[in-house]
Design a protein that fits this description.
By secondary structure, this protein is mainly α. The chain has helices at 6-25, 30-45, 50-59, 61-66, 68-71, 83-102, 111-138, 140-146, 159-178, 180-183, 187-206, 209-230, 233-253, 255-272, 281-298, 309-320, 333-353, 355-358, 366-378, 388-409. Helices cover 74% and strands 0% of the residues. It is globular and about 60 Å long.
């Protein structure tokens, strides 16, 4: 197992924390996000010999296979007509290849550095949530009305991605509390517990469907793993009752959540009755699935090519859903790749992208389970890795678990 020098650890920790902050600024200052990612990559590249970098990469089966989640897209050059759009897609997804190469050279780092990364991430999310809730309180009625119009309370980045970042922060709070003896019990214990409860309640007020689904999936994973390890049914029952109580109180006390449920029912009705999908989030998503499947059927093995998907999709929206003012790309990452790269491309993507989960028994490490469950659920609701910030968030949910897993492998941290 590799061990970073003290200087390298500090530089890596600082640039990782900077990346967290830049994600929140990402959609308003994309240059900041690009610079932060560049510094983060440089913190590894500048302090690792090129020969060692590639040796580590080729010896790491999981990351070697993961690199194909980018490389397989290069085949689209042979049958895409819109090379400009294809080049844009490849540029956005290039970090998948870069991080596949550099992650094996990170190795294990001191628990104190991991703790700093964990704390800065949670603090960044908590401060952002405080800002969102402050605006919510100041514009209470107007924002609640947005939830009846398939909209969401204003935030710094896309609401789906932010809700997933909150879910991960909740899990990291739980991870800290679960390993409290490792990090030494202190006043921080109560701070992390307060942050966990605060973010848990916020997520119900924020009322993003995919975020809530991911939250309860993560809760389910944590409860199952705890029961499997402890066989303590009493603790599981108490925790389940507490979680259900908080969720029930949130439903009763949160007008935004009630309005979101009302809007969801209305949106589903639009889909069932084949009404105008315009300005209805679920109905528009379903329309994007239907156009993608039409494109897929034209070439089930190789798809239409990554470069041509948007053009074909926009044309089908104009033909089939002329009332939709702004056509959207297929809002499901798997369906997106099914249309763009066919069954072969989708198969390559699924196998390569999930390699860190199923190789080297990654599926036995809870934090890796959590990172992938969040991502795989997110992929059901949007083509997450078709934007720069979506790529960064995706890598974040893989990078942090890998960091913890490296220390688990080095026997610095426990497996669960």
């Amino acid at each position: 197992m590799l061990h970073l020098s003290a200087y390298k650890e500090q530089l890596f920790t600082i640039t990782t924390c900077l990346l967290f902050v830049s994600i929140i600024l990402g959609e308003k200052a994309q240059a900041v996000l690009s610079i932060s990612m560049g510094l983060h990559v440089a913190s590894i590249l500048l302090l690792t010999a090129p020969t060692a970098l590639f040796k580590n990469f080729f010896q790491n089966r999981a990351m070697l296979l993961f690199s194909f989640s980018f490389l397989f897209l290069l085949f689209s050059f042979f049958y895409s007509n819109n090379w400009k759009y294809l080049a844009e897609r490849l540029q956005i997804k290039l970090p998948f290849l870069l991080y596949a190469v550099i992650i094996p050279s990170i190795g294990s780092i001191k628990p104190s550095q991991l703790q700093s990364i964990l704390k800065v991430y949670i603090l960044t999310i908590v401060l952002t949530v405080i800002g969102i809730l402050t605006n919510y309180v100041l514009n209470f009625d107007a924002i609640n009305q947005l939830y009846l119009e398939s909209k969401i309370m204003p935030g710094p980045i896309n609401h789906i991605r932010f809700s997933l970042l909150v879910v991960f922060a909740i899990y990291l709070c739980y991870y800290y509390l679960k390993n409290i003896l490792l990090f030494k019990q202190s006043k921080a214990t109560y701070i992390f517990l307060s942050a966990l409860l605060f973010l848990f309640i916020f997520l119900h007020i924020y009322s993003v469907r995919s975020g809530l689904l991911a939250l309860y999936a993560v809760v389910g994973i944590a409860l199952i793993n705890y029961f499997w390890a402890s066989k303590n049914l009493k603790h599981i029952t108490i925790a389940s009752v507490l979680i259900v109580s908080i969720a029930s109180i949130s439903l009763l006390a949160s007008p935004s959540l009630r309005n979101k449920i009302t809007n969801t029912i209305q949106d589903i009705t639009v889909v069932r009755q084949s009404e105008n999908p315009n300005f209805n989030s679920i109905a528009t998503r379903v329309a994007s699935y239907q156009t993608a499947l039409i494109i897929f059927k034209e070439n089930i093995w190789f798809g239409c090519g990554q470069g041509d998907l948007k053009d074909k999709n926009d044309a089908l929206f104009k033909q089939l859903y002329p009332t939709v003012e702004t056509p959207i790309i297929p809002h499901n990452q798997f369906i997106y790749y099914l249309a763009a790269t066919g069954l072969i491309g989708l198969g390559i993507f699924i196998i390569s992208f999930t390699a860190p989960l199923w190789l080297n028994k990654g599926y036995t490490i809870e934090i890796i389970q959590v990172g992938y469950v969040i991502l795989l659920l997110a992929f059901q609701f949007e083509a997450m890795i078709e934007t720069q910030i979506g790529v960064v968030c995706t890598l974040l949910f893989i990078l942090i678990p890998v960091l913890f897993n490296n220390n688990i492998t080095a026997k610095i941290l426990p497996r669960t």
